[in-house]
Amino acid sequence: MSSILVLHGSNLNLLGKREPGIYGAVTLEQINAQLVVEAASLGVRLLAQQSNHEGVLVDAIHAAWGVHDGILMNPGAYTHTSVALRDAIAAVGIPTVEVHLSNIYRREAFRHHSYIAPVAVGQISGFGAESYYLGLRALVRHLRQMAAPTS
Ligand code: DQA
Fold it and tell me: What distance lies between CA 17 and its chain's CA centroid?
C-alpha cells in the first residue's frame, strides 16, 4: 500500500481563524481528517505534519526518503522564498504535488513565483480545502501510473 506524507508549512496551523475571506473557515484538523477519509477510499496510507519552521520541513522531507512514496505539500509562505525546501524535494526525488488553498496567481505579485513548482509533479491552487483532496487524487494517480506505465 502506498504511503503519502502531507506537509503543511508556515501559518497553516491557524486555518479557520486566519484571514477566512482568503483561506476559508475550515481548520487544519478538519482538512487532515478529510484527507484520511479520502486516503482510505483511494487505498493509501497517509500521515500529516505541520511546521512553521523551514528546517523542520526540510528534515521531514529527508525523513520521508524510503518511508513515503509521495508528498502532498502546502509550503505556505515558504513557497515563495525557500530554495532549501526546493532542494530537499529534488534531493529525495519523492514525487511531490504542491497545493494552495488560494489562487496564488490572483494575489500579490510576490506570491506568483513558486520555488517548489519546478520540482513538483504539478500544482493545484485556488480551490480552498478542495485543493488538498484534488492534489491527493492527482498524486495517487501519478504514483499508480509510474508503477504501471502502460495502464
Ligand atoms: C498559501 C498561499 C501562500 O502565498 C501563503 O503564504 C500561505 C498559504 C495557500 O494555501 O493559499 O500561507 O500557501
Answer: 20
CA distance 105 to 122: 15
Q: For the domain that residue 88 is a member of, what is the CATH number?
A: 3.40.50.9100
Q: Could you tell me the three cell numbers for 94?
A: 519523492
pTM: 0.96
> What is the domain count for the chain?
1
Residue 151 lies in a domain: no
Phi-psi region of 125 (alpha: psi -120 to 50; beta: other; left: phi over 0): beta
Measured in angstroms, how far is the CA atom of residue 92 from the centroid of ligand 1? 24
Q: CB under 6 Å to ligand 1: residues? A: 11, 74, 76-77, 79, 100-102, 104, 111
pLDDT tens-digit map of 32-77: 999 999 999 999 999 999 999 999 999 999 999 999 999 999 999 9
- Ligand 1 midpoint to CA 139 (Å): 20
Residue numbers of the domain that contains 90: 3-144
Q: Does 33 reside within a domain? A: yes
Given ligand 1 and candidates 12, 26, 97, 100, which is best to mutate, with the most ligand atoms within 8 Å of its CB? 100
